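=== Discrete structure encoding ===
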Amino acid sequence: MQFMERWKADNGYRQALVLGLPLVISMISSSIMTFTDRIFLGSYSLEALAASLPASVAAFLFLSFFFGVAEYVGVFVSQYTGATKHERVGAALWQGLWFCVPSGLFLAALWFVAEPLFALADHPPEVRELEVAYFRVLTLGGGPFLVGICLSCFFSGRGMTKPVMVVNMAAVALNIPLDYCLINGIGPFPELGIVGAGIATLVSFTLPAVCFAVMTFTRANEERFRVRSAWRIDRDLFGRFMRFGLPGGVQFFVDMFAITFFVFVVGRIGPVELAATNVAVSIYTLAFMPMIGMHVATSIMVGQAMGRGEPEQAAYATKSVLHIALVYMAPMGVLFVAFPGPFIELFQARGDAARDFAPVLASGTVLMRYLAAFCLLDAIAITYMGGLKGAGDTRFIMLTMAGASLFCMVGPLLVLGHFGSVGIHASWLCLLAYVTALAVTFMTRFRKGPWRTLRLIDE
């Protein structure tokens, strides 16, 4: 009876799924892109597989700050939509676009620091050379990626998530065959290995930016949302966008820094441990990315409810998404523990290189048990974080991320490294402690409710 009531209610299960499922499919599409990258690279060489995780994580570490700010356009769009101030949506969109321009130039300039950056990791020379090459190509795609994310918020913030799904699926449809051809040298394409994987990703980042731009800047959207005429920087609106968006960017950067630090520490343990962690993280990404879609849906539902001045509906929406997240992640955790082999074997190398995969399979089987617990805890953390973000409580999220990363991840791993006690189990236990701290803190903050009094948009 309670299930049916919540299914039919405003901000209940049905509304969460209608809004969130297209975003889930979008996130799965993005995960498939990364997942197939690593499958193709694993088949190409063990060194390419080992190099792909540190390079992609490092590239996304720098991108994460700007991504965290740019995606906050969606919260402003959702709150203006909830408040029926449609004429302000175009102005909110343009503040994000003005932020993306210098951000993309900064990311492209990281090309010149790639070699000294990966020299700090002290990975084997053959792995480090591939890391540098992959990182450089990925950072060139940062600008188009940010523009695509910002423009997609024009649709997702208004609850129109199907166009976002279609465009992201088109990007994947382009990426997978291009990936395969450029890595292995199929047909007229040269064999570029890990550089080919980077080029395929760069092209797939550019396609959504072009598609969303064509779909956004239409005459009809100009008449209702002023997507063309509101192109100037609005000092008051841009200031509020920075006030609430910058903590979101810092929060995302700190989170990615903790994960990057974890990956680099594991890389120092050995190539087998790094490859096994790469496999486990890739499986996690594919399984968990649907929850990122529901996280965005939470922010949209909460943002629209807060725009209407209905904090109780915002809380109701967050709980609805949490129930869906737990129902999805619990069976996934059981599969990871009961049947780890089929997941890991997707990454097995071909030919003579397959002999080197046996220790990766053995180590990865153990890591899948950690992964099961991590996914469940992360589902709780990211759902409540979506609720807090939609309400504008980004400063608290930022401070929590910073404290958890310092005291649960970076600090303990540095101490263990000083005493020579860093191993694969100690590293993953620190990762579990980190996500546990986030889940408990965000849940407590949301239930206490200081976010209910925040005011994000102008009166």
About this structure: Residues 2-453 form one domain. The chain has one domain: 2-453. The CA atoms of residues 137 and 199 lie 6 Å apart.
